Batch of 4 targets.
Target 1
Amino acid sequence: MEEGQEVEITFVYGDKDFSQNNPHVIAIPALGITTSALDENNPEETVRFTAEESGEVAFMCTNVDCVGHTNLLQGHIMVGEHGHAEGEEHN
Ligand SMILES: [Cu+2]
């Protein structure tokens, strides 16, 4: 995604093979975004935001009790500089 771009991201619960419900709560702290608990009962949530600055935006699970929690702490969304999105043409 590119700086200044409006973005929608849908987080999808992916633990359907588990024998237990395993709620995750996803946060993007730099954008002040936190989802509801994502689980069997609420398997998807879409967040919308505008990427104001280029760089890496971190996201992670904030439910410290979820199974596999330590694997879910290092998500990154890459925001490119305006006008430098890969594949863009300049005429
Ligand atoms: Cu989690």
Note: The domain at 6-79 is CATH 2.60.40.420 (Immunoglobulin-like).
Target 2
Amino acid sequence: MKLKRITANVYEIPLGTVNAFLIEDEELTLIDTGTPGSAVKILHAIRSIGRDPGDLRHILLTHSHPDHAGGAAELKAQTNAKIYMHEAEADHVRNGFVPKPDVPVFTGFINKMMYNLFIKNASGDIAAATVDELIDDGDWLHIAGGIHTIHVPGHSAGQLAFFLPGQKNVLFAADTAANIMGLGYAIFYEDFQLAKHSLEKLATFDFDIACFGHGGTIRHSAAARFRNKFMKHAQKISRQTQYIVLDEESVIRIKEPEERI
Ligand SMILES: [Zn+2]
Ligand SMILES: [Zn+2]
């Protein structure tokens, strides 16, 4: 396991198929905790930057899936850090069981194959943990220098992304998208319409760097990449469709490029 430095105080902790992230100031803040059994690797990562596991004070969970919340209980037991997450999935962590969606939505054949191979029959069991703080869209967390919470449902109902302003603004995009073979959709969604709306919402933020649960970090111009990929309305506007407004009720389209009228 090789820790990757993303900014002066943000580190990516690769944990096999999934990433966790560590933010360093006087205290340590961890975003996600890997699959069950990942705690030992995360504690090792903390020691490798010369910090003590006891410095870990805050664990932010982007969502309850076992590859993100699987190590939370053990890390809390070892460090007494507080666990923060959205209410919609808090019971999964409290009860130690994460259900799978009844009808998952896939955006491509490869994603469906990956789901069937690695997720469909995987256990939903995780060690149960106390959730200390319920957080929601628009919350400003006074930790790690200030973190803005963004509710981004679609992959799962209580998924949160985190925006960390700094010399470079960093977005922790969770599983809203993935960056495995380029920026693209996550392996599956519970509700794809909601997911697309969440991606458009993220694309309105101004971030230089985007970190993902799955795949590599985008280190430059990440918001522009999100806008190009996920913000369909922006693309339409850039094609300069023209409208003529006759009165408040009636709008007539007079010209659209690539189309004869
Ligand atoms: Zn997930
Ligand atoms: Zn995941």
Note: The first strand starts at residue 4 and ends at 5.
Target 3
Amino acid sequence: MFALPTLLFFFATGAAARPTQQLPLSASRLALFGGDVPWNASRWLAVDDRVRGGSSQSHLTAIPGSNSALFSGILDTKTLGGAGFASQRAVPTSSVSWDLSAWDGIELVTVKEDGKRYALNLMSDLGPRRPDGRVESTIEYKYSFDSNPAGAGAARSIQWADFSAFYRGRPVPDASPIDPARIAAISIMCQSYFAQQDGPFELEISSVAAV
Ligand SMILES: *[C@@H]1O[C@H](CO)[C@@H](O)[C@H](O)[C@H]1NC(C)=O
């Protein structure tokens, strides 16, 4: 179900002025956020480098009058000497994890980009809570992409195999691949990639779907 819908989708959005959900593909996708599932900012929680002593910050807000959301914030790299990340994380509402095994990957559709490098992360487990209330780090399956410096949005179809395992920012080459039957959380992140970027960031997202 992946190859053909993806091609059609890119042709369809290529012709349009901006990405749209109004495509004849609703049967081949499962909306997670946006599209058929209105954005609800309360479902998103900031997971910024402040949990490690940094001072980056992020926000996710639903944009009134549209069905898109703004992921924005400020990436600070000075506090942690070059490192830094800001992210927003969401979990499923009606079960502990999403079973997306019927799908080939995740489609991320944006409306407006700012040229920064972003990552979409999937987690199989949420880390256990430590006595001090912090959540232990777990393996994150990450897909990084350079957004469009000219500002236009894009539709990206990301297959499961395109996600690579990281633990606390370091690659874990021998980790097992992501299990699409058990996705406990999804996050959108802006990170410094070792001080290659910092400062304000802003990504307008139309939808996240399994495709
Ligand atoms: C938005 O999400 C919050 C937190 O999960 C939930 O309590 C609330 O009912 C949701 N609102 C809507 C309109 O779905």
Note: The two ends are 8 Å apart (CA to CA).
Target 4
Amino acid sequence: MNIIVREANLNDKPAIMQFVSKTWSWGDYIPDVWDEWYRDRNGRIFVAEFNGLPVGMNHIRYLEEGVGWLEGVRVHPDFRGRGVATALGEHAMQYGKRLGATKFRLISAVKNIVAHRQIMRMGMKEVCRFSILRCEQDVESVETAARIEDSRQAENLIKHTREYQAMKGFFGDRWAMRSMQEYGFKKLVDEGRVFYLKDGNAYSIAVASMDSFGSEKFGQISFIAGDYGFAIKLARILTRHFFSQGVSLCYMFLPYAHRFLDMAEYHSPEDMILFEL
Ligand SMILES: CC(C)(COP(=O)(O)OP(=O)(O)OC[C@H]1O[C@@H](n2cnc3c(N)ncnc32)[C@H](O)[C@@H]1OP(=O)(O)O)[C@@H](O)C(=O)NCCC(=O)NCCS
């Protein structure tokens, strides 16, 4: 089959929207992010074309730590199993290499077995598993947490947690998983993203911020660790803080099979695998 992979153009959107609107029973997030991805100069949408018709797409985001983040691969149901996704992935990685990316990563739902076979065929290996939980209701909390201002203290506290080991050092950031070491603890601290709650020897530490993806604005608890009761308290403080800033949705990233935070407000865990090449 003669497939051409090229950068997306303005005319591609209607044809792509037609088949991605039915990707899953609930639809897809691609229609909501297409325009943002199309405008973003730190990334590219690629389209696979057959006989002049778009039959597949994907997107690569260049992360400044030298990582090409692959996302949004979609192939028209009539054209699956013919190497379209693989051609798109390889094309995007070539593009990423030209920008300086030395590593490529993506996430895929644990249950998406079809996708994993194709991902591993591109040579990618599993790094870790984790869960994303969502919360749409404000919580009560009257306490406050301190922001850590010393990056060495942040690094030391975070690296000694079980959760850091379980997440292989990654945190969730706008639906990408980024390595704290590569991103830089100093940068996380300078951005005011590291929060801390402590009493005596007991403590909890979290990486959290507000962000948006398409039209969705949200708070994200990108990483959280520490003593159970303290971590619950810290998660509540952060959630309350984000809701008070006007979001109506918060995400929390937790290690897989180790969802140590049992908060009724955070529900519908999506179990994911991080892959890397
Ligand atoms: C997952 C998805 C992107 C895969 O796309 P695809 O184009 O079918 O993937 P590929 O064709 O590159 O690879 C899939 C299979 O086709 C086979 N294949 C590749 N080239 C082929 C060719 N020229 N002829 C026949 N088979 C071929 C591959 O070997 C692979 O087979 P395997 O599963 O037995 O290992 C597609 O199923 C899809 O759009 N799913 C819905 C959205 C989704 O789940 N996205 C991924 C989120 S992480």
Note: The mean pLDDT is 95.
